Amino acid sequence: MTLITHWIDGKPVEPSGAATQPVYNPATGEVIAQVGLGTGEDVDRAVASALEAFESWSQVSLSKRTAVLFRFRELLAANADDLALLVSREQGKVVSDAKGEIGRGQEVVEFACGLAQLLKGEYSDQAATGIDVYSIREPLGVVAGITPFNFPVMVPLWMSPVAIATGNSFVLKPSERDPSAALFLADLWKRAGLPDGVFTVVQGDKVAVDALLHHPDIAAVSFVGSTAVARYIHATASAEGKRVQALGGAKNHGVVLADADLDDAANQLTAAAFGAAGERCMALAVAVVEDSVADALVDKLAAKARAITVTAGDQPGADMGPVITAAAKTRIEGLITSAVEQGASLVVDGRGCVVPGYERGFFVGPTVVDRVDPRQDVYTQEVFGPVLDVIRVSGLTEAIELVNANPYGNGAVIFTASGEAARTFHRRVRAGMVGINVPIPVPVAWHSFGGWKDSLFGESHVYGPEGVRFYTRGKVITQRWPQREEPAVAASFHFSGDAQK
User: Fold this and answer.
1) Count of domains for the chain
2) 456-457 β-sheet, strand order
3) What residues make up the domain containing 279?
4) Does one domain contain both 219 and 189?
5) Which positions are annotated as active-site residues?
6) 357 contact partners, CB below 8 Å, separation of at least 6
C-alpha cells in the first residue's frame, strides 16, 4: 500500500508518527493509498526548513523569482493531463473538470508572473526640503495554506504563487482525502528551480492544522473550507497574532426572472448545480424562480438532470462523478429524505444511484427538489452535493430579500433580459461575487475571490490585488542626505510640520 508523505526541504519525508488515514478512489470505493498524518514534530521541521529558505528567497531579485514562476507555469501546462487524472482518481471529479481547475489555477500563476509591476512602490520627491519619502512592500515570512478536498490543485494555486512571488515561503496542508496533488505540485516547483524549503507540504488532520495555527514562526494563514472550521481557523490564528483569510461555506442562489431565456437558464443552472457533483463552494444550489415561469423551468431542469451521465470521472462521456466519501453520500441522501419529509416536492431523486461496474462507489445522482421552504434542512444547510433546490417567488424584490436573509454571501446570480433588473440586483444583493447571466461568477485572477457574511472570516479576499496585499506589508522610508558644503541643520526637538520644512 502506497504511503503518501510530506514534502520538506525539497524531498519526500515520511511522517515521524505511525498514524495514517486511508485514501479512497470515490468511484470504486477502494482504498488506494494511506496518507501519513503529520505530528507537531513534523510541523516544526517543516516550518524550520521554510524559515531558513525564506531568509535567502526573500532577497532574490524580482526578475529571478519571476523566471521561476514562468518555468512553473510551463511545467503545469505540460503536465496538466497527468495531474488531472490524479485528481480524478482521488477526488472523483471528471477529468475535464479537473483540467478546468488546473487551468483556473494556472491563471493565478500567470498573474503572479507580473508581480514586478504589482510590487512597485510610491515615491515622493522633496516631500520636505532635502527629504524624500517612499514606500515598499515586503514579504511576511513563512505563510501557511490549509486547503479543501474539492479543489486539490486550484485552491493551493490561489495561494502559493502569489505568496512565493512576493518573497514568502509557503507551507501547504492539503486535505487528507486527496493529498497526492500537493506532492505533484511540489515536484513541479522543484523542477522549475524553486529553492528547497520555499514550497513545503505537511500532510495531516487537525493535529497538523493546530500545530500550524499555534506555531510562532507562521506569519499568516490562508484557509478554504466549511464555515465552522473557517470560524475556528480565524479565531485561533488571530489570537496568535497572525494574519488570516478564511473562506467558509456557501448557499449560492440563481434568480430566474420571467423575462429570462429559460433554455439558457436551465442549461446554466444544471451545469452549475451538478458539475463536480455539487462539491463546489460556488455551486448554484438554489434556483429562485419567478412564479409565472416556475413550472416551465422545473420541467426543463428535470429533463436535463435525468440526461446527465453519472459514472467514474475518468470514463468517456462522464458528466458527473461520485462524491468524496461514503459519509458524504449518506449525509446528502439524508438531506434529500428530510426535504420530502418536511413537505418539499421531489422532482428528480438521486438517492440510491448505482453505476454499473462501480457498485461500491460513492455516487449520488442529480436531484431536483421543488417548492422548497427556506426553513427546511435542505435549504438551511450547505448540502455540498448534486442537489438543486427550487424556491418560487413573486418577483425580483422577494428574490433579493430571500438571498439577503441567508447567512451565507459567497455568490449570487441573476438570469434576466432586463438591464434595470440586473443593475438593481447587483447593487442590492449582499454577496461578494455576483453573476449576471453567468452561473459561477468566479473572478479572473487579476480580481480577487471572496464572499461576505458567513462565507468569509477576515478582511482579505484570495489572489489578485488583495492577495498581494495579504502576503506583504508596507514599509515607508523617509530619507535625507545632507550636503556637506551646506551649513549643518540643527536637529529639532519639536515634532511639527515646521521642523520638516
Assistant:
1) 2
2) 11-13, 6-8, 199-201, 169-173, 142-146, 218-224, 243-247, 456-457
3) 252-436
4) yes
5) 281
6) none
Question: Average model confidence (pLDDT) for the chain?
Answer: 96
| Whole-number Å distance between alpha carbons of 177 and 194 | 27
User: Is residue 490 included in any domain, yes or no?
Assistant: no
CATH at residue 72: 3.40.605.10
Map residue 407 onto helix, strand or coil: coil
Q: What is the Cα–Cα distance from 385 to 372, expressed in whole angstroms?
A: 16
Q: Considering only CA atoms, give the Rg of the chain.
A: 25
Q: How many whole angstroms separate alpha carbon 37 and alpha carbon 121?
A: 42
Mean pLDDT of 285-309: 98
274 and 229, same domain (yes or no): no
Alpha helices in 137-220 (DSSP H): 154-165, 180-191, 206-214
pLDDT in tens, 206-238: 999 999 999 999 999 999 999 999 999 999 999
- DSSP 8-state secondary structure symbol assigned to residue 151: -
Is residue 318 assigned to a domain? yes
* Across 407-433, average pLDDT: 98
pLDDT given at position 467: 95
Question: Which residues contact residue 411 at a Cβ distance below 8 angstroms, ignoring those fewer than 6 apart?
Answer: 250, 252, 282, 284, 431, 432, 433, 434, 435, 440, 441, 451
- The reply to whether 115 falls in a domain is yes
Task: Report residue 388: phi and psi, to 5°.
Answer: -110, 115
**Residue 395 forms part of a structural domain:** yes
Per-residue DSSP letter, 449: B
